[in-house]
C-alpha cells in the first residue's frame, strides 16, 4: 500500500525557529493549571438560563414550521426552511449534549428529562449517545479507545470493503454517517446505541438504554402517525429534510473538531496517551453567524478538557485558559458571515486522512494514494 509519512509534515525552511513547534511534545503544564486559570463563576450552572435557551430554540423551531406551512406554496420557502430548521435541530442537539455532560444544570433529573425531550425529538437515543460520548471525552485522542471519528489503523483500513471506504472517504457521504454510527458504531468497533447489551454499556446502565430506546421508538411512532394526518410529502418537507441537514451539521462539526487542521496533529496510544495530551489535539472552530445559534460549540478545546462548564461560559473560559495553553492552543481561523472556509479543511482531511500506523505510541494520519487515484513513483 502506498502511504505518506507517519511523522508530521516538515515546516518550510523560510520560517523562523519559533514556528518549529511539536504539538506531540508533552506540555509543560497540568490540567490543574488550566483549571486554576479559569474564573470560578465559569463553572456555575444556571438552570434557568439553560432553560431559556431551550425555550428560545423551541420558539424558533415552532415559528419556522408555522411560516413554512403558511407559505408552503411559495417556491422560495422550502430551501430557506430546510437550511434554517436543520440548523435549529443541530442547536437543540447541542443543548441535549449539555444535558448529557451535566453542564445544563446540577440536577440529574432535569438533565435527563430535558435531554430525552430534545434528543428524542431529533431521533437520538439520549442515554446511549450520552454514555458513548462520555467514553469519547474520557479517551479523546486515543487511537483505540476514542469513540468519535476514531482513526482507522492500517490493518483495519485494508480490511474495509469498497462500500465502507466509499461511505467514509468520499465527500459528501461521510456527512450522512451519524445514523449508521448510532446503529452499528464505527468500522472496527461493534455494538449499537440502541442495544442495552452492547459492550459500550455496563450492566448497571442497561436500564438507561432501554428508556432511551423506548423514547426513540415513541418518536418514530409519532412521526408515522403524523404522516397519516398531514401526509408523507408534507412530513418529508417539514421534518425529514431538516433532519438530514442536522445530520450534516453534526458530522461536519464533530469531524472538524478532531480533524482537518492545517498542521497534522498527533494521535496517541499506550504510555504516550494522557487525558491532557489527548484533549490538546482537539481544535476550536469559528462558525461565523452560527456561533451563537448553536451555542458556541466551536469553543471545543476547553469544552473537551472541562465538559462541566456551561456553553455560555466557554468563550470566557477559553480566553482565560489560553494564557496557560500557549502554543498548544491553535487559534481558529476567523470566519466570515458563513464559515465557507471550513469546506476546504473538511474536504482535504477526508480525502487525505485515511489511517494511522498499527504500531507506535505517537502516530499521524497517513494517505492511501490509490484511494485518491495518485501513483507513487
Automatic annotation (TrEMBL):
Main location class: membrane
Keyword Oxidoreductase: yes
Segments for region (Disordered): 1-21
A GO BP entry: lipid metabolic process
Domain Fatty acid desaturase N-terminal: 16-66
Compositional bias of kind Polar residues: 1-13
Record-annotated Fatty acid desaturase domain positions: 77-329
Pathway in which this enzyme or protein is active: Lipid metabolism
Intracellular or extracellular location(s): Membrane
UniProt GO MF annotations: oxidoreductase activity, acting on paired donors, with oxidation of a pair of donors resulting in the reduction of molecular oxygen to two molecules of water
The keyword Transmembrane helix is annotated on this UniProt entry: yes
Transmembrane intervals: 53-71, 208-230
GO CC, alphabetical: membrane
UniProt keyword terms in alphabetical order: Membrane, Oxidoreductase, Transmembrane, Transmembrane helix
Record-linked PANTHER family: OMEGA-6 FATTY ACID DESATURASE, CHLOROPLASTIC
Entry similarity comment: Belongs to the fatty acid desaturase type 1 family.
Listed name of the protein: Omega-3 fatty acid desaturase
Organism: Deinandra increscens subsp. villosa
Amino acid at each position: 500500500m502506498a502511504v505518506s509519512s507517519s511523522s508530521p509534515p516538515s515546516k518550510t525552511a523560510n520560517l523562523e525557529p519559533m514556528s518549529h513547534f511539536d504539538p506531540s511534545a508533552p506540555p509543560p503544564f497540568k490540567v490543574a493549571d488550566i483549571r486554576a486559570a479559569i474564573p470560578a463563576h465559569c463553572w456555575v450552572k444556571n438552570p434557568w438560563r439553560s432553560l431559556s435557551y431551550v425555550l428560545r430554540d423551541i420558539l424558533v423551531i415552532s415559528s419556522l414550521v408555522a411560516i413554512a406551512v403558511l407559505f408552503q406554496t411559495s417556491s422560495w420557502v422550502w430551501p430557506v426552511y430546510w437550511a434554517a430548521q436543520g440548523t435549529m435541530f443541530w442547536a437543540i442537539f447541542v443543548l441535549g449534549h449539555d444535558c448529557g455532560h451535566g453542564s445544563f444544570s446540577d440536577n440529574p433529573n432535569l438533565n435527563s428529562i430535558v435531554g430525552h425531550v430534545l434528543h428524542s425529538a431529533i431521533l437520538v437515543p439520549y442515554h446511549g449517545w450520552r454514555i458513548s460520548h462520555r467514553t469519547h471525552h474520557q479517551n479523546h485522542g486515543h487511537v483505540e479507545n476514542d469513540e468519535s471519528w476514531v482513526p482507522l489503523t492500517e490493518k483495519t483500513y485494508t480490511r474495509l470493503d469498497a462500500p465502507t471506504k466509499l461511505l467514509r472517504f468520499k465527500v459528501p457521504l461521510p456527512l450522512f454517517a451519524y445514523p449508521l454510527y448510532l446503529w452499528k458504531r464505527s468500522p472496527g468497533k461493534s455494538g449499537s446505541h440502541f442495544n442495552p447489551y452492547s459492550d459500550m454499556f455496563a450492566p448497571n446502565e442497561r436500564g438507561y438504554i432501554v428508556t432511551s430506546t423506548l423514547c426513540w421508538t415513541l418518536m418514530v411512532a409519532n412521526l408515522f402517525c403524523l404522516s397519516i394526518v398531514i401526509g408523507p410529502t408534507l412530513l418529508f418537507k417539514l421534518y425529514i429534510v431538516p433532519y438530514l441537514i442536522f445530520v450534516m451539521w453534526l458530522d461536519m462539526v464533530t469531524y472538524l473538531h478532531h480533524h482537518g487542521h492545517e498542521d497534522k496533529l498527533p494521535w496517541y496510544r499506550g504510555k504516550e496517551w494522557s487525558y491532557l495530551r489527548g484533549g490538546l489535539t482537539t481544535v476550536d472552530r469559528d462558525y461565523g453567524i452560527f456561533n451563537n445559534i448553536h451555542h458556541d460549540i466551536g469553543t471545543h478545546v476547553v469544552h473537551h478538557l472541562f465538559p462541566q462548564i456551561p456553553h455560555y461560559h466557554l468563550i470566557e473560559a477559553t480566553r482565560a485558559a489560553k494564557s496557560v495553553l500557549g502554543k498548544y492552543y491553535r487559534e481558529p481561523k476567523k470566519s466570515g458571515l458563513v464559515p465557507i472556509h471550513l469546506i476546504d479543511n473538511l474536504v482535504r482531511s477526508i480525502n487525505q486522512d485515511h489511517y494511522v500506523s498499527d504500531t507506535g505510541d505517537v502516530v499521524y494520519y497517513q494517505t492511501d494514494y490509490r484511494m485518491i487515484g495518485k501513483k507513487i513513483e
